[in-house]
Amino acid sequence: MELPTFSNYQPFPESGPLRENLDVSLANLRDRLSDHAEDTVYAYVMTSVETTNGRFLQRGCGPNFQGGEITICSCMAQMRTLEGVQPGVWFSGFTGVHGTIKGNGLFYLTRIRETAVSQYDLWNRLPSEVRKAKAAHLQLHCDVFEPTVCFEDPGDLGTYDVGNYKGPVNGHVHARERNRNRWHLDIDYQGEQTGRRQAFLVGDSAMTFIWTRPLISFRGERRERHPRSKRRVMHEFLQSLDTLP
Questions:
Q1: What 8-state DSSP symbol labels residue 216?
Q2: Residue 81: Cβ within 10 Å count
Q3: DSSP string covering 21-90, please?
Q4: What proportion of the chain, given as a percentage, has pLDDT over 90?
Q5: pLDDT per residue over 165-194, tens digit each?
Q6: What is the number of other CB atoms lying within 10 angstroms of the CB of residue 170?
Q7: What residues contact 73, with CB distance under 8 A and at least 6 apart?
Q8: Where are the domains of the chain?
Q9: Is the pLDDT score of 233 beyond 70?
């Protein structure tokens, strides 16, 4: 399968488990997740995914699937402050309602392998080759920031100070003209409703599924026209999906 590659969009995985799990069918997905029927799934709608010529294109930095790992560190910050967001739960992202002929299309689904309390904590958890592939000071569509100081405590207040990190590369998607300091929230964000700091998420590569084109859509029920900011158990989540023609 030839994948679309454009400099203004995040490239899809080219090797490893993330590549192997591209574009699985709904029947395959249901079969593979049959042992996770009671797991919690958080779902949201992504504004950064476009559908062009029958393909999904991710113009944002989160989720980020570079370096063979999927990280969720720069999108849905409010959801990532929820107390239930911890290893073992699932995150799913859908396109907008116009993403497919049947509405919201499923773009990705991942089981959270681990969480970090700060970008500093995250940076030090990731292998060096993964850091390089995800470093925001090197790439336009990346979501991990390299610290410039050392801390004994990964949750030290200094780890939330943007001055203690390398700034993003010129033209980064969270540092553009209209909002040059958007990336500050990728370092320091507290939920308005929860009062908690955001968790920085790393998915399990073997349990991550990404779709490069419209194959699965959200149907839900009449009272649920879209999957925005929903929490379900897995068997309900899977039943809310339809195969696209």
A1: E
A2: 19
A3: TBT--HHHHHHHTGGGTT-EEEEEE-SSEEEETTEEEE-SSSSB--TT--EE-SS-TTGGGSTT--TT-E
A4: 91
A5: 999 999 999 999 889 999 999 999 999 999
A6: 9
A7: 62, 64, 119, 122, 143, 144, 186, 200, 201
A8: 16-124+191-243
A9: yes
